[in-house]
Fold:
Amino acid sequence: MTDVILQSIGMLGTSMIVPMAILGMVWGIFGGALPGISPSITMALLLPLTYTMEPISALVLLASTYVGAEYGGSVPAILIRTPGTNAAAATIIDGYEMKRKGRGGEALGISLWSSSVGNVVGILCLILFTAPLSQLALSFRPTTYFALGVLGLSVIATVSEGLLIKGVISALIGLAIATIGTDPVSGVARFTLGNPDLLSGVPIILVMVGLFAVSEVLDQVGQKAAWERAQPAGSRLRLPDWAGQKRITKASLIGSAIGVFCGIMPGAGGTVASFMAYNEARRFSRTPEAFGKGSEEGIAAPEAANNADAGVGLIPLLSFGIPASNSTAILLGGFLIHGLIPGPVLFDRDPTLLYGLFTGLIVATIALIPAAFLTLSVCIWLVNRPKPYLMAFVLALVFTGAYSVNFSIFDLGFVLAAGVLGFAMRYFGLPMLPTILGLVLGYMIEANYRRSLVISGGDHWIFVEDRIAAVFLALALVFFVGSLVAEFRQRRRARAEPARPASEPREPAQ
Amino acid sequence: MNRDMALGLIVMAVAGLYIRSALAIPVSFLGDAIGAGGVPLVLGWLMALSGAGLFIHALVARRAVAADGSPEDERGGAFADPRHAVIKAAGLILIAAVFLFALRPLGYVPAVALLLAALLAYQGVRLRPLQLLVAIGGALALWALFDLGLGIDLPDGTLLSGLF
Structure:
């Protein structure tokens, strides 16, 4: 272990880790700062470009982008009351209030400081927990992998926004697309329509780029509202002084702890983490009445939470090969594009790659503060660009990047088709992540299910005999039934509400 | 019919087509007990059941809402003006499709410049010389980044070959 860590540190001087970490961080801040461009889209735009890079450079670039975007999202949230990312929505409440009172620079500084605290906590957890969990995964058998895939998919499908049945439909869409190509056991071609390009399956990377980036452009073009303009005046970034840091320490730590908790829970994500952190910071604050009126703690807690969540969110991907969010699904694409499958085998065979990734994330965390100072004026300039220009260039960049993967115009058709599917899913309120996860895990689930049955001679009891698999499958069932019950109760409550007499007071909105 | 009911019907129709195609997958002598079509069949039936479930759920919810006399809830609708959003998206898809067909004959720079100009105009930006310059400059910048910078061989164009 020590050798590997020393090797990883040695890579700082010989590989492209440092420049890629800084580049990714800066790109992430820009992407996060642009309303409508989420961290996953920011990463998706880079994904095809990483094809020609060394694997370690590509992974550091993508992971640093993810971390940078989480901070970048707070810039427009504070300056123009529009969150750059969903996770920055909670930052608006007090961030914009501070900006209105002429303390925009301080608000940005608090966001930057607490984002850094969250990053450090998240990356520490990532380094501490990834290796032991991946060691545990080394003992997994085909039955366990099948059960793990089912568990991952059911958790994401059940915790996704909207109706449970829509999450299930979304997962089934992904699983169905994953069956296109050559059958993993017999080698028979399935659903290829005689097209040899489809024999190796649907290109997951291109589908991800289309689903996230193209569908976003299609969505944004149809929205009539323009963004507010950010004023550079009063927006000079100011880090909190010693007393200021002391004032927000508790909130930053609460936010970080909640970010870690939500990062471990698949599907919870940075948005849930930041709102939970906001509420808990208010509960434990000495000045809860200041929340909503420009509280420093009201910025620190959600920003620390969404950054800690980003680091910890990488654990399921690196330990088990299962992405827990849109952004980690794109990072998975970064592995796949280089023929690597994250998980215990990769960790065992090439630990330098993963420790190099950790090193890159540490570099990115250190680079965050100077990068934020240097990029703020560019961020304000970008936020003020008219939306039509941004959307036009995003689409051109997506097509150029997608072409560069296989030099194929046919691939661009794939990207466009995936974009249309993504737009249709948005239109019907279907969550996107279960589809991506179904697509990514489809092969693993089917191949391991059938391999297990070949081993047992067709006896399904093999899934119960493997204790870990049985626990995973039982958990999947618990999640599914629990979500069904929770949804049923929620609907019954919602139906009962209008029947209340008008005189009866309602609970105040939180 | 509301959006969820329409989605339920679409999912059932897609599931029907998927099941039909799954039934047509040939059986291999190398196959296992499940066979190449086994998992797709299970997925198809689950999809059909989910679609039916969503349709029935939406129908029941609609009746309940109608009985209450409250306005219908368009669950999951992320668009303020769905009709406008769909029409705008359809137009953009058409522009993108034309770009894909034009890319090989025109070559990268002219095709991307036209794509950028068309997208700007489509979003309501008046095309003055400055905007055209942005489109051409943008295409050249992307070409320089990918072709010169990253060494990616972008289409030269069969009509204007040799220029770029």
